[in-house]
Fold each of these.
Amino acid sequence: MEQKSIFSVISPIMAGPSSSHTAGAVRLGLMARNIYNTQFKSVKFVLYNSFATTGFGHGTDKGLLAGVLGYSVDEPRIKHIFEIVKDVDYSYEYVQDISRHPNSVDIIFDGGKMTVSGDSVGAGEIRINNINGFAANIDGVYDTLIMMYKDKPGMISTVSEIIQKQKVNIASLHCDRASKGGEATMYIALDVPVGEDVVSKIREIKDVFFVTNIRKLK
């Protein structure tokens, strides 16, 4: 029997009228913030399809902004987020594209230094499907290590060995690359969190140029 998340049984406690347009938007923003993991000065949101046409009335624009600023779905100040934000430039673009999920968004930090794309799939649940042009499949259910590196033999085994020495089980592992020997990404879902020492060891591997440790969403 397929197991269901609690979000598929009851809607999350949230500051907004819609689990997919409001809570999902906040969680997408939170995940994008955690992936970028850098203090940012500007952010642009490209909203697609239903997010673009009906999201305004459901607070999608406020939810996305609140998420990238670190607010949780039950934070009452989300309703007034535009009055609260003072030191971040933000903008919105609205697009219709049938190739994208009805509730889809691109979150672009600091003029394109990182783009995180994802969907709100219903009942507050989300899925990150692309980071800087590389395919992803991150739903916030697991703690996840994300890394970018130069594609070369042995990288998967080297990283896996570092994790296994901490007696941490890998739930899933996904790799993508632009070309052989080119830029590549790896997403590793973990059964339990790893410490900063693991991240530091991976960061020290030659030809690894980005690593971040994403905590699962609550």
Amino acid sequence: MKRFIQVISSVLLMTFLSTAAFAAKTDITLGMALEPPNLDPTGGAAAAIDEVVYANIFEGLTRFGSDGSVNPALASAWDIENDGTRYVFNLRPGVKFHDGAEFTAEDVKFSLDRARGEDSTNAQKALFANIAEVEVIDDHTVALNLTNADGNLLFNLAWGDAIILDPASADKAATDPVGTGPFKFSNWVQGDRIEIVRNDDYWGESVALEKATFKFISDPTAAFAALMAGDVDAFPNYPAPENLPQLEADPRFSVVLGSTEGETILSMNNKSEALSDMRVREAISHAIDRQAVIDGAMFGYGTPIGSHFAPHHPSYIDLTGNATFDPEAARAMLKEAGYIDDLTLSLKLPPPAYARRGGEIIASQLREVGIDTEIENVEWAQWLEQVFKGKDYDLTIVSHTEPLDIGIYARDDYYFQYDNDDFNGLISAFNKETDPERRDVMLKQAQTMVSEDYVNGYLFQLAKTGVANSKINGLWENQPTQANDLTGVYWSE
């Protein structure tokens, strides 16, 4: 009998250990090439902020789905009144911030007034310029009264820059974010990782993951090594496209190629001495071999573009023919503008591989037509301070990953300093227009205008090169906004 009990006990123990061994994991480690400068999406322009906090820690009234659709979030429904100049939002009841504070309409008013205020540091303050008043009707109803009808409002409110903060914790959001999302901030080891944990008091459906770690690995070689060693489970935006064929052949991994909102451009300072002349900007555009940049910097991953617009958008038109690779035409335009082998421009390159690799290629191409460049590699903090804020540059390379952001060209103080009253008027009319067909026509006009004015050198649409353990499910294939949304992520057993 004793032996029988021992055998049964051994069987039960082996069964328990086997079940435990094959149970689905509930934690995940994601690799990121860049560390965010802070964790407040309302106080910084870096995409890496939203890649950690969007839909995970913070939520807005609306949110983007994986297909780019605009869906309810903290607002469960809304009504549009007064010919599109008043939006009344019904807020979800029973929602609490991570510190236990109740979410009410007063928090919406505080957050949107803060975003649009005179002293706002919001990188997308212009998104809220049309809001005349945030009106609290009751605890769970809020109205936005607008200066003009706004066909973009629900879309704008889905941006990370429009998330809702609790007044009591807003000032510490940069280092200790408190939101309403399905995950809570846990830990930040500067230079290494950020950890978040499941919010068991979440108002919505509970997430499968108990913990997620965002690990920062900027070096492409180190990123590959971390994947192969299992130190990271996934790299939603893998920084070393040269390794993708090898990873695709490895059954341990899934490689998913998707699209992003990232228009990768050679930004030009339109008010610097030489680049204020459109002939010089056009010459630079004709000096660039886009496909050579895509092949050399991105190992073939990327779609050529001819304007600041995503090829997957229904209103996209192909304008790459406005800036064909034509070195002879480039030299002729430079000569016409008075520059004969004596033009030198600064080229400031932020950390991503597309910028550093692409910058070397473009510098070589410009040299062939008589333009020398002074290359300066800068870190993101320096880029934001000198280029984005200070406008102290001639050329730079960056991916603009905000969705449907061609309206930035109507901001006279924006860092490439394009100033065109006709374009500004077009965008103003577009923002007020609600008819889909008219909006489509206006978007095509806007693309054409910035392309034919050669505001910037339009290179390629950044591909989303995702790599993950083959047992991970639910990561976004495409990237309609800069986010690593973990709400639907789970492991297969």
Amino acid sequence: MAALYLVLIAGSITMVYPFLMMISTGMKGPTDQNDNRLVPAFLSDEFEMFRKFVDDKYSGNPERIALIYGDAASFQLISTSPPDEVVQVNVLADSEYVRYETFLKSLAPDEWEAGFRDAQGRWGSRLSSLYQDFLRKQYGSVDAVNRAYLEQHVVFQTIQPPVERFEVNRWEPKPGAKWSDWLRFRETLPLYFRIPITVRGMYQAFFRSKYKNRIQAVPSDVRGNAMDFCDLEPAIGSRAFREFEAGALPDRYRFHSADEKWLEAGGTGAPPIAEYESSFVRRNLAELRRDYSARNYDQVLDYVLLHGRAVWNTALFCFLAVATQLIVNPLAAYALSRYPMKMTGKILLFLLAAMAFPAEVTMIPSFLLLRDLGLLNTFAALVLPTAASGYTIYLLKGFFDSQPRELFESGAMDGAKEWQMFRKIAIPLSKPVLAVAALGAFAGAYGAFMYAFVVAQDQRMWTLMVWVYQLQARAPKATTMAALTLAALPTVVVFLFAQRVILRGIILPGEK
């Protein structure tokens, strides 16, 4: 018995561990989603949290990060594997921290851009979520937003913030209601969302692009002692600065810039962007860990609950599937048990033989039949083909056969009709096996993807699993794991509620 229990415990661990790993991966992001540690490193390692913050703020753009932290540091900050070394960034003293936040507050709208944007290969962003919440409060509905912006959106999740290209020469925002709302929204953002647009940064980006990321190719009179592009210092009036001014410096920054405002605020040198971000992470470590732990799950819930009718469709489909199977199968099994015929054995064999064919084999004939009946894109198409189950009928018949005949004879003597004996004798004695049948019907309906997608191709009829599949096609690994974790929870909850009834009927009379 001890050996048996050890085997069962080992088997349970092999089932629980992958689920825990799925939960853990759902808490991660682009920088650590390939890390197979069960406990995410950022929950205990401050530098890992700093990596996630920087990667998120600059949308994983290595060139933007390199201009602030340097080429070597940018690789370590956004690498998808654990870094070989920790990037050392100084933190600001309290007075300098306050001075920098005062400087951020003083910036004009065109002297900073908003961080935490969407990026290619990623799904969702903090900026988009806040912007969509802002529009939801201001307009109330997607239709109102569409009328105001002359756009076409089905849900708020598809509305993206306007593009900002202040550092691009001759770029001007498109005037209108959307840009006006965007400017009002920007003022509500926390200060750490702001990324100052400096002349120094544009100067470095200009020569990085011109010399294709090779600092050694920069002429010595321009490079000076710089070992990295983030160390290039613009010398106003020099040949290099005149070249940059003529080809890349927007007119809006010729008379005012964030660099000048930092000096006016009492700062020295360039604005300490890296130092401020390091200080912010250290000061808000606990809050950031909570936020990043739940972010993927929040995004998935927002996507599922507000995108189409996935939850309602799935709930109704599961209810109808369970209800039909608990009506059709017990009636068929009871009839075969109470009124046996010469063909009963052959009927059961026919029902069990149907299980030999994979569901994929019958999918196309079912589709053609439902099409001819005009039932595609309806709940009838989802429910009717699975209303009867050969195995469930066989199981229930064995259970009904094992019930004492004396009970039915007594009922008949007391004048009970067959329907009353079925409802008051057979069904109450069959609760354990009915619970197993209901759980199987729920699991089958809830997990149905391919069949549900084939017979209900209208998006308004898509179930939760179809939406999760669509999400996997464009979401990163961590978000996909969060979606799968949340999708698995209803099955676990249903089993926990039904386990007491199921365990009472582990040894089914029909299978003794």
